[in-house]
Amino acid sequence: MIYSALLTPVESLTGIGPQIAKRLARAGIRYVGDLLLHLPKHYLDDRVITPVAALAEGEATRVAGRVVRRDGHGMGRKMQVNITLEDDHGQRIYLHFFHAGFMMRDARLAEGQRITARGKVERWNGYWQMAHPDWQPAAAFVPGWLPVYGSVAGLGGMRLRNLMARALEMVPTSLASPLDRLRPLPLARAFLDVHRGDGSEERRHQARERLCEEELLCYLTLLQQRRAQAATPGYRCVELAGCQQVEQSLPFVLTPSQQQAVAVIREDLASGSRMHRLLQGDVGSGKTVVAALAAAQVMGSGYQVAVMAPTEALAQQLQRTLGQLLEPMVAEVALLTGSSGVRARRKVTSALASGALPLVVGTHALLSDDVRFARLGLAVVDEQHRFGVRQRWGLTDKGERVHLLAMSATPIPRSLALALYGDMELTVMRGMPAGRKPVETRLLSPAAMPKLLAGVQRLVAAGARVYWIVPLIDDEELSVDARVVYLRENLPGIAIAGLHGQMKPKEKQEALARFAGGDVSLLVSTTVVEVGVDVPEAQLIVIERADQYGLAQLHQLRGRVGRSDAQSYCMLIPGEGITEGGWARLTRLTESHDGMELAEFDLKHRGSGDALGSRQSGDPGFRLLDLAADSALIRHWHTQLPELDISAEMVRFWRPLAESTD
């Protein structure tokens, strides 16, 4: 079966040693198949070799010729290697490679050898040159379309192409998937077509769609299985005294949307049937209060409650918030995460098993075998789109008649939500708590940076905090580290820190704690702050290259500010190559603060036109599927789901549907 090959450890590929394997693992790439899901961003026409005499400055092109000289400057790994290449017409171009001492020992680059090179051509002192071009022996060059990949784990284009070629060799076309009997394009062939770039754009699109179908049908089949398993009676929770006590202690009045959600959930819990409900509410709409009231009803009826979050930072935040909301009922809200010490973990698990502890908040650590409950009545899964089908229901397997309340702030049009979460009833909350002001959202050009920095100075001087979002981790120009350096130079006196997904969990927690506590006033981050970060003092978020994100994720990011009664701001800075459609989407964000409305707009206007590797983030935990680009595909298979015999290996491969990270 093909999944045996796809689940081969990535270390088995030549060129990946222990250090690179660790970096790839931090980026979520552990197996050969993970690497193959890093799809090309686009393709370059690489069918023509250009004579040196016909080169045009600034263009990326391919040249070929004979190596007439190879020399190096410097020592060891830092050596710069220079290759003089002469084409068949006697014209020369100079190729420069940095930190490339190993190339002095490569026999394929010895004088007299014929090679080809592709890169951006520049003119210097009257000579043509290329800096760090992709190269290969001339005999190995096959004209065609060249896949272009976004960097990952510090690996650039040529290294990724070479690794992809080796990975593809490990997936022979003879290996089959359960879906191959339903589709004309086998899964193994789809991987080849999407990475080799051969054929038409239509063929590449079909290959990507075939990969998406594999992920979608695996997900929907798990959903169907779980729906059948979950149709059982539930505990009847009818005691409302504690729930009413908690509601009366709130320092605010519930919004109409919250009241409606509480009424529906209250009826579910008292019905005697097992509740399977998804509470979908906009950023800041007050879902946690609704969950607290549900927990109060269940605990008041004599049962335990477990709340699971996808990250440790969010779990800690929920522990604090629920502790405050439920203070009239419980003395302690326990916390259990992957970093809990042995003694603390033993104390929590023992109290849960004996029934002495009525409420625990944690990460996926709650799913561990040693976590047992005396009488679990309600499982709450926050930001549930970050969990898979099995994890979403995993807590309910800790008891016999456990109710499930899943929550998500990711706006998904109702029709798609019913398809993607058909194992649950859906409640949608709209509107914001009283006193919240809409976040003022503006589009800025890069030329407005001086005025923006001056505004940052004024806000920080008044006690506000600022998020600064960049899309990349290791891009030389726009990485977290590069932006930290730039902002420290231009904002003297302001405490600035960086945060990104490749940091160790402890480092991320420390950076967030310093920002939340006020030791850091400006946090430069990737989208790891998209959910689960609640800092009321944050009044400004700056999002660079905002056009690279989907509206759902931009709306989520904007939700990091505006969490108090102070006026907050969101500044969107688009990239240089922004399209007309990109302008339309960002303009819409400046006009609307309704997440569901924005999701519908994104679905309507972005459609299926996205390029292969430009998947917009902010979708419910899928590896390839994009809600806007693939909405028709989702609806089709939701209504025509075939019977599939999916294996444990298949589920394991599409693992964001089945596991999470702490």
- Helical content stands at 25-40%
CATH superfamily of the domain at 229-429, called what? P-loop containing nucleotide triphosphate hydrolases
Distance between the termini: 31 Å
Widest β-sheet, arrangement of strands = 11-12-10-13-14-9-15
- Kindly state the mean pLDDT as a whole number? 88
Strand content: 15-25%
> Number of helical segments?
21
CATH architecture of the domain at 229-429: 3-Layer(aba) Sandwich
CATH topology of the domain at 229-429: Rossmann fold
Assembly type of the shown chains?
A: single chain
Q: Which structural class should the secondary elements be placed in?
A: alpha/beta
Alpha carbon gyration radius: 27 Å
What's the CATH class of the domain at 229-429, please?
Answer: Alpha Beta
Number of DSSP strand runs:
21
What can be said about the biggest beta sheet?
Answer: 7 strands, parallel
Low-pLDDT ranges: 608-618, 656-662
Q: Looking at the structure, what is the overall shape?
A: globular
What would you say this structure looks like, in words?
The chain is an alpha/beta fold and 662 residues long. Among the domains are: 95 residues, Nucleic acid-binding proteins (OB fold (Dihydrolipoamide Acetyltransferase, E2P), Beta Barrel), CATH 2.40.50; 201 residues, P-loop containing nucleotide triphosphate hydrolases (Rossmann fold), CATH 3.40.50.300; 153 residues, 3-Layer(aba) Sandwich (Rossmann fold), CATH 3.40.50.300. It has 21 helices and 21 strands. Strand 2 and strand 3 form a beta hairpin. The C terminus is likely disordered.
